Amino acid sequence: MGWKMFPVWHIVNGACACRMGVNCTSPGKHPRTRTGVKEATNNVDVLRAWWESFPGCNWGLACGPGSGLFVIDIDEAKGGFGSFAEFQNDHMPGGLIPPTTSVVSGGAGRHLYFRHPSVRIGNRVGWLPGVDVRGHGGYVILPPSNHISGGRYHWQTWVDDLAEAPSVLIESLLAVPDTGSGPGGPGRIGRTLGDLPDDDVVMGQGLEAGNRNDTMHRLASRWFRELGVHAVYAVKGRAFQVWSRTTQFPPFSWEEAEAAVDSARRFVERENEKDQAIIAAFARRRLG
Length: 288
Prior knowledge:
Layout: E1 5-8, E2 11-12, E3 15-16, H1 44-53, E4 58-62, E5 69-74, H2 80-91, E6 102-104, E7 110-115, E8 124-128, E9 131-134, E10 139-141, E11 154-157, H3 167-174, H4 188-191, H5 199-205, H6 212-227, H7 232-244, H8 254-287
Antiparallel strand pairs: 1-4, 2-3, 4-10, 5-7, 5-9, 6-7, 6-11, 8-9
Helix pairs in contact: 5-7, 6-7, 6-8, 7-8
């Protein structure tokens, strides 16, 4: 099959088995190895050694040309089934995708596996509402891995040869720039957050050398936007997990990382104040 895999932390007693435990922000989904998906392999000897070193671990599947596939990741809780069905009805003949391998995720979503095309497919969070794409540099969790919900990933359908994705689906993916995070939204902060990696990726691999301070600032801005500016403990917990996975060559101290987080909080506070002022001014004009 040639799929490239790597070990991932698993769930024990309702919490991630990593040292963060119940405070882990990516439970059962982040890599056990230093560089995560970059170490993914189909070498049987390496996989066996990992299996023996990390008993009970979950397993990640590297997406992209190395494994010859990409994955449509449908999140039930975020309305992904409805938005993907609407896309099929609007753009695909008969409203159906070709039969292909699929997985029921631990959270009752779906992973649809497609053969990798001749063009580069990157990662896209929010390609459709509740639907992400895992391509080059991304990964998905394989069955029978366990999930924080208490469920397990399991195969729903299996085909020996993955289906080719319909051309209209590929064209739609190519029309959207690669992102490692959500589209951000129309505000000023949203426009500063493009091209950031997924939380799952940075939690497992840390930050790449070059612009690490800036990347940490933008990640923290995203988290404060998501959780609120008062969620300092939660955001610093995420930042520490990323920092602890970051290679210290050249050195990148926790003090530098924490300063970037503090700066991001002040930045988001200022932008929120500006947004509120704009809304208030608009309301006065409408009501005056």
